[in-house]
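Possible race condition, two jobs.
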Amino acid sequence: MKDFIREDRLFSLCGLNCGLCTMHIGGYCPGCGGGEGNQSCRIAKCSLKRNSENNNREKGRPDREKIDYCHQCPEFPCEKYETIDEFDSFITHRNRRSDLEKHRNIGKEAYQEEQKRKTEILGELLANYNDGRRKNFFCLAVNLLECDELQAVLDQVKAGSDQTGQTIKERAACVVKLLQSAADERGIVLKLKKKRKTEK
């Protein structure tokens, strides 16, 4: 989208963890505010409008903070967030609002540290436990589970078997089972919630 440029492309304006998305990992999307490749987005348009309004405020009045994340807007959460977590795209939309609130509560730096750790865990999963069919599952699991839960799974699989004698398919099955078990304990469904196509 024209003129929609952001410094933080890994955590979107509306709360998606772009750094954990299959499209971003595959090089098909530059991340939120990455310029060329960004599609039209009503929330991005809203932020451009609000930032423009802030820049055009009368002289002598204090400037408002630039809106890089929706939680910085005085109207957050607005009507755009009423059903925002209902369906997914290439990445889970389930925690957009709660992740924005977490970002606001713990601060940008702390959230980025957590996101960095999750990115590292995802990288390890994809490098060592992906049999060619697990990228979507791993991205979803890393998005929805906490860092300590994900690390516990990695520690458990490393301690529980001699991986040198296992095939990649066996390693993948083991990790998937453990991630699924961790998700089940918290009532988390590790499947993307796709919107059903309306019948004609």
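Job #2 (started ~2 s after job #1):
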Amino acid sequence: MTTKGNLYTSYKEGFKKNLEGLFLYDDKDLNITYRELDSETARLANGLKGLGLSEGDRVTVQVDKCIEMVYLYLACVRSNIIFHPLNPAYKERELSYFLDDAKPSLFISNEETISRINDLGLGHSINHLFVLNEDGSGNFSDISSTEDSFITVDCSENDIAALLYSSGTTGKPKGIMLSHGNISSNVQSLVKAWGFQASDCLLHALPIYHVHGLFVALGCALMTGSKLKWLESFEVDSILKSLPECTVMMGVPTYYTRLLTRDALDPELTNQIRLFISGSAPLLEETFNEFYKRTNHQILERYGMTETNMNTSNPLKGERKPGTVGLPLQDVQVKIVDENNVILPEGEIGNIQIKGPNVFKGYWEMPDKTKEDFSEDKFFNTGDKGLIDADGYLSIVGRSKDMIISGGLNIYPKEIESIIDKMDGVLESAVIGISDEDLGEKVVAIIVSEEGALLNKKEIIAEIKGQLAGFKAPKEVKLVEQLPRNAMGKVQKNILRDTFN
């Protein structure tokens, strides 16, 4: 599959026949047609041009989920300006790094964050700062022009459309450059794989600062002219109320485990849904089976990551194997190799490598790291361990980089360990993820104290929450006399996981 030019052109090709149709609605009287979407993004695109932004500039946005963020994303795409979304939970320590690394020309956030921008000690001066608060107040609307038509920039499919960050195991986040072609080709594959049509209504409760909610969910709707039922966040009662209105739901495993706690979840409630999709974290076979028992629906699990968008999916029609993430999507190649990059036989566990038009262009201003993460034959080394069965289905058995996935969000232990290790009375620490029925994995800090030191577990958690996003903070702190190490002195986190799981 090939795509040419601007991502927005691909989107509009999908929705142009439904301009008067509904794009998005919620339970608070928000009703946006595709014509209004096109108009609003044009006004914002003209406004960005009026601020002096040009192709390749970065726009960083850190706000709560809102329609304005969708408009801004599409305005940037239309202008060939790089969209850089951030989790609103990020604190000053994290934010200062992202802003200094991405060097945006425009930063949009809430009033409190913007008012404290000078406290971040940035080495980069941001030309334009705008406020968009959770209640919609602020001067964000001042960006928009009165001109509601805009000629979408005819750029290359290889131009960068978005910059998303994924923290590395060293704790230093890496900017992942996703091109117009990466996103467009992947959405086209997903629309085909999942049978999306203009008649669909997608239940959207996901955040829109990462691939799942921003490119996968929004993309499938835009490229088919279907509509979205818009929820600001995941809340079980809102989901249960909305299910009869929708035909497709996308979520992380935590969404499904929480729905299973409610007696209201039954075949009648889910009668209009044709497809439940799960991703961003492993779906337990137990959850798959229980959901089918309760609803007569088999959850479709797929596999993706920030660097690659979506790679594989269980089939829309055909066997959905619990415990697997399905078959490679169109034009995506998946292979399992050993440490010497030799392809392994079916059923053997090894390193998962991916190649295709969905794979990112590289890490922002990190050419050496980019080269390191690709094989000589241009396959991306995902860092995940897995196997391919006799039917070609991929199963993921672990992550070689010790990443924790809690509630569908990626958490990198080194980032938390670096804070704990600087605390008074701490000799060393190891952060692990252990099984949790609700979150999939929960963060647990294992700490060795200095001789004679008395550590307060609650104070340790509070200190981390003050520096990092709350979802990264440990749910538990365990105090031990020493950490298990191998002959080379490396902490054996597998032993810690076995001990505390």
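The domain at 404-500 is CATH 3.30.300.30 (GMP Synthetase; Chain A, domain 3).
Logs attached separately.
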